[in-house]
Specification:
4-stranded mixed beta sheet, globular, binds 4'-deoxy-4'-aminopyridoxal-5'-phosphate
Length: 442
C-alpha cells in the first residue's frame, strides 16, 4: 500500500506560496485571511503539519471524519476497490458495492425508507430531496403543491435549491432575490414549541405545501441550535395530516453524531425523504444519498417518459465511494462504536457541568458527540462575529483545530478521539474562556 513517508521532504514555504498564487479556498476572505495551514498527514484524531507537529482535529474536518484520519481499514478497502472497478456510468449500469450498500444501509434507516438515490455531497443530497418532493406532486397531477417550509437559521448547502431552503444569512445574501420562496419557521427551541407548531399549522392550511425540510434535532451551521424530538414528531405528524412530505437533512446528524446512528431514530413519525453525506463514507470520499419511501418512488413510475427523475451526476454511485461507505458501516456495526459515542457523550456532559455558571457562556448545548458553547460577547450571534478568528487562532496555537461559528464554539470530534486528547481540548476551551472573561473585565 502507498504510504506517505513521515520524512518526506516537504518544502512547506514553497507549497504555501503556490497555494497563495492559485488556490481559492472555501468560506475564506482571501484578502484578509492568513496563509492556509499546510497539513501533510493524518492519523486518528490528529493532523500533522509540514514539521510533523500534531493538531487535534476537534471538528472532524468539517464534520466528516468519524473514524479518524487515514484509517487503515478504510484505506485497505478503498485500495482494493480501486484495483477492481473505479467507476462506471450509473444510468443503465450497476455494481455490487452500490447494491450491497443499499441493502446494508436500509437495515439501519427508518423502516419506511426503501430507495436510494446517489449523488456527490450534502448540497446535492438536499437538491435531490427537494426535486423529488416537488416532482412527486407534479407527476401525480398536483401542480398546486410547490411550496417549501424550512427553519430560520437552517443550513442545507450552497447550491441554489439548498440556499433557498436555508435561512437568510450572510452566506446567501448576494443571491437573495434569485432564490425561490420558502416559508421559514422559527426553530422550536425550548419555550417556542407551541408558537412554531401553530405557525406550521397556518403555513400548511393553504394545501400548497409540498415539503418541510429540516435538520433533525441539531441545526449545524446555523449555530448548533438544538431542539427536541418530541416537537419535531408533532411537526411531522401535522405535515402528514395535511398531505405534505417531510425531508430530514441528516447530512450532519447522520452516522452517530447525535448519539444514535441517525437523528431520525429518535422520532416516532419518520421522514419521507432522508439526505445523507459527510460521515457516509467515513468522511473519506465525497458521496451522498437521498433515500425515500416506496410511495415516492412509485410516483415516478410511468409509461410516460416525462415522469422520469431527470437528475444525475457524473460520479453517481461511484464504486470507490460505495466501498468506503461499506467499510465505514463495518466499523459502525462493531460494538465498540456505540461505546465510543457514549464515552464522548459522557465526557461532554461532565465537562459541560463544570461550565454551567461560567459568566462567558450564554448557553450550553449538548447532543450526542456535539457540545456547543454560545459565548457571551455583547454582540449578536452571527457567523461574522469577530470572536471567531481570535478563537480559531488561539486554539491553533495550542495545536487544536476548532472553528467557532461566530460566537458559537463547538466540539465535534472524530469518534476515535482519545480521552487525553479530549481533555486537552476541554483544557484549551477553559483557558480561552478565562482569557475572554478577563478581557470582558468580569
Ligand atoms: N446539510 C447540512 C445539515 C450540512 O451541515 C451541510 C454541510 N455543512 C450540507 C447540507 C451541505 O453539505 P456539503 O457541504 O457536502 O455540500
Amino acid at each position: 500500500m502507498i504510504q506517505l513517508s513521515k520524512e518526506a521532504d516537504i518544502d512547506g514555504q514553497r507549497l504555501l506560496q503556490l497555494d497563495k498564487a492559485h488556490i481559492w479556498h472555501p468560506y475564506t476572505q482571501m484578502k484578509t485571511a492568513g496563509p492556509a495551514r499546510l497539513i501533510c498527514r493524518g492519523q486518528g484524531a490528529l493532523l500533522f503539519d509540514e514539521n510533523d507537529q500534531a493538531y487535534i482535529d476537534a471538528v472532524s474536518s468539517w464534520w466528516v471524519t468519524i473514524h479518524g484520519h487515514a484509517h487503515p481499514y478504510l484505506a485497505k478497502k478503498i485500495y482494493e476497490q480501486l484495483g477492481t472497478l473505479e467507476h462506471v456510468i450509473f444510468a443503465g449500469f450497476t455494481h455490487q458495492p452500490a447494491i450491497d450498500l443499499a441493502h446494508r444501509l436500509l437495515k439501519h434507516l427508518p423502516e419506511n425508507q426503501n430507495r436510494l438515490f446517489f449523488s456527490d455531497n450534502g448540497s446535492t443530497a438536499v437538491e435531490v430531496g427537494l426535486k423529488m418532493a416537488i416532482q412527486y406532486f407534479y407527476n401525480r397531477g398536483n401542480r398546486g403543491r410547490r411550496k417549501i417550509i424550512a427553519f430560520e437559521h437552517a443550513y442545507h448547502g450552497d447550491t441554489f435549491g439548498a440556499m433557498s431552503a436555508g435561512g437568510a444569512s450572510v452566506f446567501n445574501a448576494p443571491f437573495e432575490e434569485m432564490l425561490f420562496e420558502v416559508i421559514h419557521l422559527p426553530v422550536p427551541v425550548k419555550g417556542r414549541e407551541q408558537e412554531v407548531l401553530s405557525k406550521l399549522e397556518q403555513a400548511l392550511a393553504s394545501g400548497e405545501v409540498c415539503a418541510f425540510v429540516f435538520e433533525p434535532l441539531v441545526l449545524g451551521a446555523g449555530g448548533m441550535m438544538m431542539y427536541e424530538a418530541d416537537v419535531l414528531d408533532r411537526m411531522i405528524a401535522l405535515c402528514r395530516e395535511k398531505g405534505s412530505l417531510c425531508i430530514a437533512d441528516e447530512v450532519m446528524t447522520g452516522f452517530g453524531r447525535t448519539g444514535r446512528l441517525f437523528a431520525s431514530n429518535y422520532l416516532e413519525h419518520k421522514p419521507d425523504i432522508i439526505c445523507l453525506s459527510k460521515g457516509l463514507t467515513g468522511g473519506v470520499l465525497p458521496m451522498a444519498l437521498t433515500t425515500c419511501t416506496e410511495a415516492i418512488y412509485e410516483a415516478f413510475l410511468s409509461e410516460d417518459a416525462t415522469k422520469t427523475f431527470f437528475h444525475g451526476h457524473s460520479f453517481t454511485g461511484n464504486p470507490i465511494g460505495c466501498a468506503a461507505a461499506l467499510a465505514s458501516l463495518d466499523l459502525l456495526e462493531r460494538p465498540e462504536f456505540s461505546k465510543r459515542i457514549a464515552f464522548i457523550e459522557q465526557e461532554h456532559q461532565a465537562f459541560a457541568a463544570t461550565l454551567a455558571d461560567h459568566p462567558m457562556i450564554a448557553d450550553l448545548r449538548q447532543r450526542g458527540t456535539i457540545l456547543a458553547l454560545e459565548l457571551q460577547t455583547g454582540q449578536q450571534t452571527s457567523y461574522l462575529n469577530n470572536i471567531r478568528s481570535f478563537l480559531s487562532n488561539f486554539f491553533y496555537e495550542r495545536h487544536i483545530i476548532l472553528r467557532p461559528l461566530g460566537n458559537v464554539l463547538y466540539i465535534m470530534p472524530p469518534y476515535v478521539i482519545e480521552v487525553e486528547q479530549l481533555h486537552e481540548v476541554y483544557g484549551a476551551v477553559r483557558e480561552a474562556l478565562a482569557i475572554l472573561k478577563e478581557k470582558a473585565g468580569l
